[in-house]
Amino acid sequence: MRIDGTAYRTIWPEEDGSIAIIDQTRLPHDFSVVRLTTLDEAAHAIRAMLVRGAPLIGAAAAYGVALALRTDSGDAGLEGACATLLATRPTAVNLRWALERMRARLLPLPESQRVAAAEAEAAAIADEDVEINRAIGGHGAALIRAIAGRKAPGEPVNVLTHCNAGWLATVDWGTALAPVYAAFEQGIRLHVWVDETRPRNQGASLTAWELRHHGVPHTVIADNAGGHLMQHGKVDLCIVGTDRTTASGDVCNKIGTYLKALAAHDNGIPFYVGLPSPTIDWRIEDGLRQIPIEERDGREVSELTGRTADGRIETVRVTPDGSPVSNYAFDVTPARLVTGLITERGVCAATREGLLGLFPEQA
């Protein structure tokens, strides 16, 4: 996607062998590229959320394995790298998927071939993610186009999204926002309501930033404003991302997604999920009981970071000293509240039967 007219991916290999990433902890006030050279640096980038979003976490982990094998390409080095990276984030299934794919590709090879093979496989995972998300964009844009056809001439399609499931959460294009970008490129008039998404404000700081740089009309709203907008006919559809989706269609995404799904259901508004297939966890059925929910540092709730009027970046505390803080990072939206899953193979019902209709090889 574009930043001031220049096309970027979120992660890419450099000629010197390092892996370049956009440091998302510094956005929206500072666009900074960081270069990863070791396993520890890759693990830190995932854990500290310099890179985040399920698809991008998977790609970063794959590149992390490649970096690790430059130091130790033996079985112990490979297994240790996978264990270190797997421990960085518990919820997004793409992390485990990418590491299992790297391990399966590399273990049968002699040590002398592993570094080159790891670099090639990581690049393949990144390239495949781009094409998966591009396809999601095409299928989702058709839904937006259909709604546009029912609106009065000149009226935009109003899309509400939660957190950041745009190109910053993937290698390129995004999941929930891929349909928005595809529709925008097709000339469909649209507008995006951007939930601020506390904690970490990933909607206000990341989604708004990338939409602005790409030229997509949007408005940042408080998290609790979505239901009000739906009640007053100002939302045509919701599209969110997912960090893990069960084989039965339950969707785990950034905390607050469930509340948006409830409001959409109550107001008869379609609620779609942009779903790349590596994010489907075919091993589990019950999202509420089987998906581990990450609990993060309470300071993400009790503190806010922003830019002051004189240009300084400052962090301030917004809760009373001594008040306990809980910080659940994700929630689970039951399949019954999901209108449809937008995958790279098409749109399906949020059911086992719907998913298997598009992915019969998983039966």
Automatic annotation (TrEMBL):
Pathway: Amino-acid biosynthesis; L-methionine biosynthesis via salvage pathway; L-methionine from S-methyl-5-thio-alpha-D-ribose 1-phosphate: step 1/6. It comes from the Bacteria. The active site is at D243. It catalyses: 5-(methylsulfanyl)-alpha-D-ribose 1-phosphate = 5-(methylsulfanyl)-D-ribulose 1-phosphate. Gene3D superfamilies: translation initiation factor eif-2b, domain 1 (1.20.120.420), Translation initiation factor eif-2b, domain 2 (3.40.50.10470). Its EC number is 5.3.1.23. The record marks C163 as: Transition state stabilizer. Substrate binds at R52, G53, A54, R89, Q202, N253, K254. Catalyzes the interconversion of methylthioribose-1-phosphate (MTR-1-P) into methylthioribulose-1-phosphate (MTRu-1-P). Belongs to the EIF-2B alpha/beta/delta subunits family. MtnA subfamily. PANTHER family: METHYLTHIORIBOSE-1-PHOSPHATE ISOMERASE. This is Methylthioribose-1-phosphate isomerase. It comes from Azospirillum picis. The lineage of its organism: Bacteria, Pseudomonadati, Pseudomonadota, Alphaproteobacteria, Rhodospirillales. The gene is mtnA.
